[in-house]
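Hey all, sorry for the wall of text incoming. These are the two entities for the joint prediction.
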Amino acid sequence: MNHTRLIIAREYLTQVKNKKFLLITLLIPFLFVGLGLFLSFLSNTNSDSTKNITVVDNSGIFENSLLSSDTVIFSFLEDLDEGEAKLISKERNDDGLIFIPPLRDAKNINYVELSKSIKFISEEAPTITMVNSIETKFEEILTNLNFVSVGLDMSTIEESKIYLSILQESFEGEETTKLDSGVKVLFGLILGLLLYMFVFIYGSMILRSVLEEKTSRIIEIIISSVKPNQLMMGKIIGTSLVAFTQILIWTILVFVISTLASSLLGVSTSELNSVDLNDTQVNSLFQSSLNAIFNLPLLNILIAFVFFFISGLFLYGSLFAAVGAAVDSETDANQFMLPLSMPLIIGLYAGMLTVSEDPSGTIPTIFSHIPFTSPIVMMMRIPYGVPIYEQLISLSILIATFFAIVWFAAKIYRVGILMYGQKPSYKDLYKWLKY
Amino acid sequence: MSNLLSIHSVSKHFGDYKALNDVSVDIPKGSIFGLLGPNGAGKTTLIRIINQISIPDTGKVLFDGETLSQKHIINIGYLPEERGLYKSMKVGEQALYLAQLKGMSRTDAKKQLKYWFDKFEIGEWWDKKIVELSKGMAQKVQFIVTVLHKPSLLIFDEPFSGFDPINANIIKDEILKLRNDGSTVIFSTHRMESVEELCDHIALIHKSNKVLDGNLNDIKRQYKTNTFEVGLVCNEHRVIKQLISSKFNSVDASFRSLGNELKLNITLEPNQTSNELLNFLSSNAEVNHFMEVVPSANDIFIQTVNNQK
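and here's what came out:
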């Protein structure tokens, strides 16, 4: 046991002290937060610039009802024809011109006809959002006027309108909203992807570490002191600890940096997706996103992530270690990497395609119990709520498979690390199992 | 003399290939034991079995009278033929790591390492990485790591490869010193002159079988043919030669010498003694060279291997 501890310590320390590890660990959070801030900065400056728009209203209807906002300032002119209006607008160098022709019959206004005669003229093509917002404004004004003209009372219409936001609730009595489902989809995806990435990255790390000992030929000295199984397990555990260290540092860094950055720059990362909304809307969306996140089974997610990540990494790590032992170089490893990574990729795609539609459907349920795909698919399902007993069953299958696989991997590892020369075939690997 | 290591009818298969076939070897305590054999004979397999890297299919190995087990690992130091160290790890750090794997405490390992590093005058390498060292330098570190935990059994597989003659000598002296301090040494090599120089026991493995083993001098005695190499200073080579061949079996010989002597290899019959020969020669010519031809380890090696074919 003492030996395993030494191996774990060495594995951990050499990888953590590696300059590349430090660089990646420290840089990635900055990169992410930096990218986020940059994006939100971009969209903020973009929307901060107010658009000046000249409105030539020959009808005289809109001057009082078309109101300027933070983003669009309307300035009104009257009694100009289109040519004159264009000249003035160009001279003012503003962002666009809305031209409304004079009314044909001021007493009996045809609003439908009027709506069709409104023109937007600009040098550069306007953004869709701006056109949409202008259209909405005119639509609202014209609809209201039209209602009045056909004898409908606006206040009655307003009063009799029904607004609905359906109340969603789970069997446990927790209220859910549409936003909740969105957050679940997102969380599931992020968790599945993270697991996929981490298993892959750290699995390859184990492979490289095994290969390093083999190519530097130190392996024979090491296994004259420790059992190959001890060495392999030490490597897998050591690398898993490295993974946890990295994830922990990332979590802390992202938290610290984003808190610092948002308090320094006054930019909230939540504004990222809601720049068009005003402050109260931003706050309420932010609030409800937070609520949605807190509605998730967060503790369950955290614990499940730790367990499924460890078991998944152990399972794949031992396979990657066996591959590292069997081959002489990283290029040779590719041949065996493909069949190993297939289940991971299948799990990822199966999860992405099926979980959001029906998280407890047949396919997601099956894939979340097959040990090679279960870490990913189960993590995608858990945000929607998966009964604990089902998680435990899946985890037990995963762990049992790990023990079976580690036996098999250790055999290949034991023989492989001392074999040099030819790239082994699958037949050779099978033979090694019997040595 | 008791045996530190007894190997009893050990066999090992790899698939259909038989790497060792019923091999038994006894390695006496305090000996330098030469494990010889052509390439692919099964030496490395045997060494790996002693190191418990491989497990024999049948047979058993006794270490100092006990069945070989995990606990004996700390009593064995192994320098494999294919050797290397972690390339990007610092010399001191990995020496400490390897020493701890052999059961040394960190402080003890540090102390011992300091002693050896000072002895080899390589103290300034402590913080260097292996990639920064030459091959010979790395070999020195490797040697230190092998002997550091004062094992009672040392196994060296081609220990001199990669060393220049000066450093090879330093290592050779250290090996002798370790033996004199009580260690037993298994020494596997193709370089017969170092076998001659160092080994007192040998075993020869050929095609998975042990074909010869024992005390090197006993083996030599067994292989010697009672032949003497002689050099005679005389004027009439032909007359003398005829005279000699009338009484002894003699053939022309050649060896390096300063003069123009008559050079012969004379083989004695069982009833003849070397004194008879010497007296006979000295009464007929001036003897300036008289030496028993003792087969070298090299001769024995080649002869035995060829006989097996």
